[in-house]
Amino acid sequence: MSGDALSLTGPDAGPSPREETLLVLGGGMCGLTAAVEAAECGLRVHLVDPAPRLGGRVARMASYFPKFCPPACGLELLLARALCQPRLAVHLSRRLAAHALRDARHELTICPVDAPAGDATDAVARLCGDAIIVATGWQPYPLERLAQRGACHPLCLSNVELEERLAADSPGGGELLRPDTGEPPQRMAFVQCAGSRDAGHLPYCSAVCCAATLKHCRLLLERYPALRIDVYYMDVRTPGRLFLLRERLAPYEAAGRLRFLPARPPRAVPHADGLSLPTERTDSGEHLALVYDLVVWATGMPPSLAPHVAGRDLALPLLHLDERGFAADSPKHGIFAAGCARRPMNVSESARSGAAAVMRALAFLQTRRTSAVPLPAGEARGDRHA
Description:
Structural class: alpha/beta
Largest sheet: 5 strands, parallel
Number of domains: 2
Oligomer: single chain
InterPro entries: FAD/NAD-bd_sf, HdrA-like
Number of strands: 18
Helix content: 10-25%
Keywords: 4Fe-4S, Iron, Iron-sulfur, Metal-binding, Oxidoreductase
Shape: elongated
Protein name: NAD(P)-binding protein
CATH architecture of the largest domain: 3-Layer(bba) Sandwich
GO molecular function, one term: oxidoreductase activity
Organism: Candidatus Desulfovibrio intestinavium
Distance between the termini: 55 Å
């Protein structure tokens, strides 16, 4: 599902005067879930996303966890529901240029992603809606900001880069090779909390990185029988069912192919045989300087509002943002945050968050309808049920 703009509505795309409309910003798993659920509840829905296709980052993943099934398992079903939904219109390769609140309705101006801010051309469109769901997702914390730790070396890659390389439809066909030799890695290291829980970078835990690393370890150890992996961590956070990932790795730990080393995030130093990671174990004080073919940095998940808006100024001034850039509901104005725009979360949590945002939007619209209904003459609102 791709193209500059895509409408999934039929010929009756224009909403009737009384028909309520929901505007969804973001076409990843969260935004797409919200759009489909809202349309199936009877709302007219406009979904806007700067990407040329739906699915967000999930569409580029290698597998889900903890079941290790391909992303197509859930995404294809969701796309099928979207395709047969006449109330849903999708605007791809578009971003928000302006927002206005007129007569209690939101008016969004959207433009092509490559259009200059303020460009008034025929490609600019205006959408009106009664409520907005912000599902703008997340972006990887850039490795360039960890350059002082050696993370920009050619033998380094981020957890997101690894995920995309392991996908079967990636340019490399899912193979992971050392770039200088073209051979599969024999020794790999994962550095956890790379830029997270750090006052100089992201001061919060990104919630998903530990489970993602455990998933990557299992995928790699199964695919490359000669591979050994060390995971450098401060603590492993895998709540609920995610702890099953650690249990499934126990045979590899017993065989000596996987080790968990409690340590502060080390610094990568070039070595004749690859990269050395000098650091100190936090449990024993032992100094380490092991050498690896590849080093994966588990970078954090900051929110990703900027790609969805045009220009440097925030195009959605009524949206509440905290000091870290995460969005919160603005229920007074009918704006609801969902998914990783709200906080770091995994795919299933994002989908549930999108559905929950629809419920809050429906409650907002119901309250507004109720308050707008005039009472019979002589009947006070306070004693209707007396």
